[in-house]
Amino acid sequence: MNPELRRKYLEDVVKQLADESKGSYILLLNNSIGETAIVCALLKAFKQEHKSQVTIVTMPGHLEVIKLWADDIDKVVFLDMESMRDLTYFGVIDQNAFRKDHPITTWTRHRNDGFLDRLIQLRLLDQKRGGVNLVDAYRLLLRLSWRSQLNHVDLIRVKSDSAELESILSSKPANKKFALLFPGCNTNIPAPQRVWQGICLAYLKQGYEVFYCTQGARFVPGLDNLPAKQINLSVTQAVTSAQIFESIVSHNTGLMSLFLLCGVRSSVNILLTKSQVSVGVAQESVPLLGSSFSFTTEMIREGTIVWEWETPNSESALDHFSEDIAMAREGSTFLAWKSPDKHGNRHVFNGD
Fold first, then answer.
1. With 80 as the cut, is the pLDDT of residue 343 above it?
2. Mean pLDDT taken over the chain
3. How far, in whole angstroms, is CA 301 from its chain's centroid?
4. What is the DSSP letter of 149?
5. What pTM did the predictor assign?
6. Among 148-162, 232-246, 286-300, which stretch is predicted with the lowest mean pLDDT?
7. What residue spans define the domains of the chain?
8. CATH class entry, domain 156-349
9. How do 103-105 and 24-29 pair as beta strands?
């Protein structure tokens, strides 16, 4: 589209948003599922601290996520991600402004001249020195106090319409354990097929029935002859599946952040692969941080155990790695596990 026409369209979008949401804060949720879930989990605190209604602008594909926090949202407007991001690209909205009736981008790269994004990248490079984790970054962006609470979803209230899940649940023997794998990623390079093959075989050896889901993932490793049953699950169905599966294995994805914010009671295994992180002129290859960055310990509810594993590069380490995951035991690639007790205290071993 012609740049002038594009800018005119975006200016009209801003006017329409202001007209439809008089007297409320307008939050643009123009990022992935994980970031959308974290912002939604902070909306209750946002409304209490700012004493205002809130309008959420999001992509139609994220409707399932925001519906989980429907009680904290006053109005929903749908807009494509490209247009939401173009509002700052074209300078149609002031990325530093924070006031009612003015769209506020929640994409950290486009907020406050990218300062928050740089803090996040510093955390990725060395979490012991500085920077902020993802939840605290959104506290800063939304101008909330450090003590503002995340509002977890009551999983019991989440209903699924999946006939496939109902069939799996109804046919599940009382003494049988199920494992669910999510081999795909949307941002980072996924672990290779040999890793998932090894994990499947290790679970089968422990007597599990194994399933996997790749729906919604942009990057999926080759999964030929994977000894597991494929199932297709929407976001809501994936969340409710946690009531069926005793063990879940995934990369460090936004879907896992959503799982934790919904209080899943499964054992959640996060595979941390390597990623390039840039800050200024520096670029380093670092493990994608799990609970020290994107899903913080405050997101983990009582009854949920999160295991973190650095994916091995050598074939010789793969068998032990897979068995450690299936048997829920500490191994050479084990990084940390975290679980809050009944008093809300978080226990961390080998972790941050």
1. no
2. 83
3. 15
4. P
5. 0.87
6. 286-300
7. 3-141, 156-349
8. alpha beta
9. parallel
